[in-house]
């Protein structure tokens, strides 16, 4: 934030509304950034008082309010500061020859390192259940460490292969998080409440239908634009795609 607000140019110098063709990238990236469906249920299950997870204010609403506020501030003013030169992570725009800027990048790397285990909580829990079905417990720790190492190596390799990580982020957001975080919860909620009542004027059905439509739009448009951009980049004729927040 120190560098973002240093000599901040006037907002009038920036294009505040991007081209319509870039909107799917924005929507997919936002879904990717805001999505936490993989850790929502485990967190609720591990809480001493899970009934306080939802509701008003509730743990989820309080946490999301803080996250949205921080994302909005960093995204908006980061674009105002760097304009079309802003990169997939604003830390990449920081000066290369200043200790303070490099310290921020190191801290960012440490955050990624320490939070990786949280993101791996759900898949590793599923893998552990499969391993528990083995009749033999020999080399159990070796197998667990090997699986974790392979999965992490694949993740890092994917990030290193593609030169334009912004498009990869938007593609993942469009394909996986639009379905896992929007479409499937809306469908499950509708099915669960179908015989129990969908609320006054069927507002639950209307709400879930809108959410499902948004997820489908994000899936189709975001995937198309992201894949097209990746093909251009991999062919060596790509252009820089920036997502305006």
From TrEMBL:
Its main location: membrane. InterPro entries: AA_transpt_TM. It is found in: Membrane. Signal peptide: none annotated. Keywords: Membrane, Transmembrane, Transmembrane helix. One of its GO terms (cellular component) is vacuolar membrane. Residues 17-227 form the Amino acid transporter transmembrane domain. The keyword Translocase does not apply. It is a multi-pass membrane protein. This is Amino acid transporter transmembrane domain-containing protein. It comes from Parnassius mnemosyne (clouded apollo).
């Amino acid at each position: 934030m120190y560098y973002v607000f240093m000599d901040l140019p006037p907002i009038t110098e920036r294009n505040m509304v991007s081209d319509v063709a870039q909107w799917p990238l924005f929507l997919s990236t936002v879904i990717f950034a805001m999505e936490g469906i993989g850790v929502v249920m485990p967190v609720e299950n591990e809480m001493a008082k899970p009934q306080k997870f939802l509701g008003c204010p509730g743990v989820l609403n309080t946490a999301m309010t803080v996250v949205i506020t921080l994302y909005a501030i960093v995204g908006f003013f980061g674009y105002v500061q760097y304009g079309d030169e802003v990169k997939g992570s604003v830390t990449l725009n920081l000066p290369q020859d200043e200790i303070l800027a490099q310290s921020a990048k190191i801290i960012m790397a440490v955050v990624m390192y320490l939070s990786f285990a949280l993101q791996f909580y759900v898949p590793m829990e599923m893998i552990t259940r499969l391993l528990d079905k083995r009749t033999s417990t020999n080399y159990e720790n070796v197998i667990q460490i090997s699986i974790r190492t392979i999965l992490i190596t694949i993740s890092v390799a994917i990030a290193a292969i593609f030169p334009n990580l912004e498009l990869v982020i938007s593609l993942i957001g469009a394909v996986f998080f639009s379905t896992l975080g929007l479409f499937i919860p809306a469908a499950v909620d509708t099915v669960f409440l179908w015989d129990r009542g969908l609320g006054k004027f069927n507002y639950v059905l209307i709400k879930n239908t809108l959410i499902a439509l948004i997820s489908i739009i994000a899936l189709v448009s975001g995937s198309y634009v992201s894949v097209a951009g990746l093909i251009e980049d991999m062919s060596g004729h790509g252009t820089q795609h920036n997502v305006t927040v």
